[in-house]
Amino acid sequence: MNDNKAKVMLIDDDAGMRLLMEQLFKSAGYAFCAASGGEEGIAMLSQEKPDLLLLDVMMPGLDGYEVCRRIRAEGRRVPVVFLTAKGDIVDKKTGYGAGGDDYVVKPFNNEELLLRVDALIRRRRDDLADRKPIDRSGTSKIGDLEISCAAYEARLRGEVVDLTAKEFEIVALLASNPGQVFTREQIFQHLWGEDGQPDPNSITVFVHKIREKIEDNPAKPKYLLTVWRVGYKFAERV
């Protein structure tokens, strides 16, 4: 995984482990960064934008599970690999339930860890590449809703929907990829670019306003759907 120098981030309160992992991943061709605790790590995520997060479970303050729950609640879908000295099935259930993607028990084989990290990063990049860009010359029609990017307008049963520019961009993005799930962070970056600081609350507000304009019953949407703990998607059919 050395073609685009993928970045791995570690959150671990053990200074020795941080040094060991830095040497391991840099020697394998990765970019690397690390934080010594949960709060520091959450704050670093927006700046570092890692391709994968290694997360120690047993840390003072916020443990690894809570860190993962928080970043998933923010809409971040960076792959998470838990590192822990505990290997019983109860801990694994907790880790996957918190939103983790893989689970490595210490002591681990360095080569195996690198293979798992490489596989997760490649899978994540493939998932993102599968999403179609917005066809600015095309028109999407789902049920009674028609979205024309060329005309920069949406129509519901033939009537123009009064969407703001940001609202239309969200609708166009999701409608161009029906059935594909976008996190709040991805939608935010689509609107404001990679340098924008993700604010999941702002996307929630936008979605609420959009639903008031395109849904017959905003409380039971049929077009713009919520995927619990992940983000939003447009229905493939209604």
Count of DSSP H/I helices: 8
- The overall average pLDDT, rounded, is 86
Biggest beta-sheet profile: 5 strands, parallel
CATH superfamily of the largest domain: Response regulator
> Which strand order do you get reading across the main beta sheet?
2-1-3-4-5
List the helices and strands and how they pair.
Elements: E1 7-11, H1 15-27, E2 31-35, H2 38-48, E3 52-56, H3 64-73, E4 80-84, H4 89-98, E5 102-105, H5 110-129, E6 139-142, E7 145-148, E8 153-156, E9 159-161, H6 165-175, E10 182-183, H7 184-192, H8 200-214, E11 224-227, E12 231-234
Parallel strand pairs: 1-2, 1-3, 3-4, 4-5
Antiparallel strand pairs: 6-7, 7-8, 8-9, 10-12, 11-12
Explain what the structure shows:
By secondary structure, the protein is α/β, with parallel strands linked by helices. It has two domains: 123 residues, Response regulator (Rossmann fold, 3-Layer(aba) Sandwich), CATH 3.40.50.2300; 96 residues, Winged helix-like DNA-binding domain superfamily/Winged helix DNA-binding domain (Arc Repressor Mutant, subunit A). It contains eight helices and twelve strands. The strands form three sheets. A five-stranded parallel sheet has the order 2-1-3-4-5, sandwiched between helices. Strands 6-7-8-9 form a four-stranded antiparallel sheet, covered by helices on one side. It has a three-stranded antiparallel sheet with strand order 10-12-11. The longest helix has 20 residues. 31% of the residues are buried.
